[in-house]
């Protein structure tokens, strides 16, 4: 369904949809200058994830200065760059769209996290060696070319997963630890960000995915985070992106991740998604698409939508119990002005999020 979603492991080896230690000084520095008109009951939406896509005429990206300006108009200053397009195919600074993107972000005092990448089916590799070699080469290349930019904020490790068992748990522990360490070896002061998810489909309506309890979840992520140089965990807020999931269903997993982050000394953010599959209940899902139909099956495509502004406000209020900071997946796909069918959503988001007359930073 969405090219921004990397294939992920949900405990069975099947590819599925894409699916801190930093102190308060880092958090406040990152947010410095952001306008804030809301009270402490709502998390601050500071940025978005963006799957960078080449456009014609080449060389160019779909993320450009105009898009950055649209983000800033909503009070967002952080962009997590996904995909292999940025940093690839450049023959010189004058025709490198990645260089142009960093220059535009520098001028706007925005902050970019860069994707360290992942090989296909990384979770099914017999060992970590090939993936680590690939990741280390990419980290070195990105930092060598673009590390001089003030907008190069940090690294994003895209192993977006849930819980793993057995040999896959050992593999994931090694990859998180060693890829984060490679980032720190080349740029010690730049934070490392990840964005895991959780599964709410304990009845296996969407597929035969092994389900983990919140206690299992806390145990797995405490183990992963304690042994790594990861700094920030941006937890995806709605499981499999279905609109019928409730705050009450999500709360135990947020509490579990907060427990893991606190135990490991990591910073917790929320990835409050602004794209969702609009279905009212598991019964309706089965009636529309059939049991065991994955959410990214082509049959679900007509039911995807941007999250209405009033629902986004409610989601930001929910996650504020766990963190004052949020980013979002779904803005690029459903909310930005260039997506003509959702222009009204961007205007609605402006009314909700646009900087007001008061300035400051949220605090616990």
Molecular structure report:
It is built from eleven helices and twelve strands. The protein has 364 residues and is α/β, with parallel strands linked by helices. The chain has a single domain, classed as TIM Barrel (Alpha-Beta Barrel), CATH 3.20.20. An eight-stranded parallel barrel has the order 3-4-5-6-7-8-9-12, surrounded by four helices.
List keywords for this structure.
single chain; 364 residues; alpha/beta; TIM Barrel; eight-stranded parallel β-barrel; two-stranded antiparallel sheet; 14% strand; disordered N terminus; disordered C terminus
Topology:
Elements: E1 8-9, E2 15-16, H1 24-31, E3 44-51, H2 65-73, E4 78-82, H3 97-107, E5 111-115, H4 129-146, E6 152-156, H5 166-186, E7 192-194, H6 214-226, E8 232-236, H7 247-264, E9 267-271, E10 275-277, H8 282-289, E11 304-306, H9 309-319, E12 325-328, H10 331-335, H11 343-353
Parallel strand pairs: 3-4, 3-12, 4-5, 5-6, 6-7, 7-8, 8-9, 9-12
Antiparallel strand pairs: 1-2, 10-11
Helix pairs in contact: 4-5, 5-6, 6-7
Secondary structure class reads: alpha/beta
Q: What CATH architecture do you see?
A: Alpha-Beta Barrel
Q: Rg from C-alpha positions?
A: 19 Å
For the largest beta-sheet, the strand count, sense and barrel status come to: 8 strands, parallel, barrel
Shape: globular
Helical segment count: 11
Indicate the CATH topology. TIM Barrel
Q: Summarize the amount of helix as a percent range.
A: 25-40%
Q: Average pLDDT value? A: 85
The succession of helices and strands, N to C, reads: EEHEHEHEHEHEHEHEEHEHEHH
- The CATH superfamily name is Glycosidases
CATH class: Alpha Beta
What is the count of structural domains? 1
Strand composition percent: 5-15%
What kind of oligomer do you see? single chain
How many beta-strand elements?
A: 12
- Low-confidence stretches are 1-38, 357-364
Gap between N and C termini: 37 Å
């Amino acid at each position: 369904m969405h090219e921004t979603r990397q294939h992920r492991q949900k405990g069975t080896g099947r590819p599925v949809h894409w699916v801190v230690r930093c102190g308060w000084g880092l958090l406040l520095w990152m947010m410095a200058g952001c306008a804030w008109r809301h009270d402490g009951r709502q998390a601050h939406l500071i940025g978005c994830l963006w799957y960078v896509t080449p456009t014609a005429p080449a060389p160019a990206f779909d993320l450009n200065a105009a898009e950055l300006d649209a983000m800033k108009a909503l009070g967002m200053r952080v962009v997590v760059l996904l995909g292999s397009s940025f940093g690839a195919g450049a023959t010189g600074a004058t025709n490198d769209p990645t260089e142009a993107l960093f220059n535009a972000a520098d001028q706007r005092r925005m902050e970019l996290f860069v994707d360290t990448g992942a090989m296909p089916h990384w979770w099914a590799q017999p060992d970590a060696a090939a993936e680590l070699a690939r990741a280390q080469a990419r980290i070195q290349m990105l930092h060598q070319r673009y590390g001089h930019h003030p907008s190069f904020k940090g690294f994003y490790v895209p192993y977006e997963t849930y819980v793993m068992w057995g040999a896959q748990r050992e593999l994931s522990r090694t990859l998180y630890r060693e890829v984060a360490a490679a980032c720190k070896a080349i740029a010690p002061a730049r934070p490392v960000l990840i964005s895991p998810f959780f599964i709410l489909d304990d009845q296996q309506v969407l597929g035969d995915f092994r389900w983990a309890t919140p206690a299992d979840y806390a145990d797995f992520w405490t183990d992963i985070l304690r042994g790594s140089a990861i700094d920030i965990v941006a937890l995806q807020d709605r499981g499999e992106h279905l609109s019928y999931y409730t705050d009450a269903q999500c709360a135990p997993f947020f509490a579990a991740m907060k427990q893991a982050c606190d135990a490991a000394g990591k910073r917790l953010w929320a990835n409050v998604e602004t794209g969702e599959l609009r279905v009212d209940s598991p019964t309706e899902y089965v009636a529309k698409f059939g049991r065991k139909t994955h959410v990214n099956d082509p049959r679900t495509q007509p039911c995807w939508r941007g999250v209405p502004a009033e629902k986004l406000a409610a989601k930001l209020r929910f996650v504020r119990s766990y963190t004052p900071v949020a980013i979002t997946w779904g803005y690029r796909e459903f909310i930005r002005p260039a997506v003509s069918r959702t222009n009204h959503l961007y205007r609605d988001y402006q009314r909700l999020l646009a900087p007001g007359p008061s300035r400051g930073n949220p605090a616990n």
